[in-house]
Amino acid sequence: MPHDTPPLDPTVVQWSVRPEDRAGRPLLVLLHGYGADEHDLFALAPYLPDALVVASVRAPLSPPFPAPGFSWYPIEGLDGRDPRHVTESASRFIEWVDAATDATTVGLLGFSQGAAVALQAVRLEPERFAFAINLSGYATPGDLPHDEALAQLRPPVFWGRGTRDDVIPSFLVAHTTEWLPEHADLSGRVYDGLTHSVSEQELADVRTFLEKQLESL
């Protein structure tokens, strides 16, 4: 299908290990939020299980000036958060995954926009991704062709968000609250007082979730 979203740049990815050390190991791909870049979530890598190869990718779009960094899809204008743009970015991301790795186990960790794209990628190819971690993000409204297959597979998904997060619109939180339990093996937590960010407690919970996924491999 035609794309308004450009491909991901394979030269700006942050990897936790050298290419020769990646074979046979599970891969966790990090997808940053709006206005950030590939360095942002990569700071979490030292706190994640050592068994994982971690790769942090850069979103393909530049937000309007003066916003810094990069974005996965527009959130401004009349078509802000258009589900079509989320799907396009997710398909571009899948293209990068297919080109960048032959790992048999690929999990996703996204923050905010990146979390929405991660979940959309799982919906586009339910059998491609082993699990997803949704931090301060949401499930994109609308139906996709493989949603029924996803509901049968029910991949593990961790969803963490804060009670003081005023960035994600409430209707998207409400939609995700209904949609995720129907399509995934959902775990997660609502963190009292947390804003649109990641806390130490949430990071500890993410590590526990990842360790459980590694045990099940």
Automatic annotation (TrEMBL):
InterPro entries: AB_hydrolase_fold, LYPA1-2/EST-like, PLipase/COase/thioEstase
Transmembrane segments: none
Annotated ranges, domain Phospholipase/carboxylesterase/thioesterase: 17-212
Pfam families the UniProt entry points to: Abhydrolase_2 (PF02230)
Superkingdom to which the source organism belongs: Bacteria
Keyword list, A-Z: Hydrolase
Coiled coil: none
Family: Belongs to the AB hydrolase superfamily. AB hydrolase 2 family.
Protein name per UniProt: Phospholipase/carboxylesterase/thioesterase domain-containing protein
Provenance organism: Microbacterium aoyamense
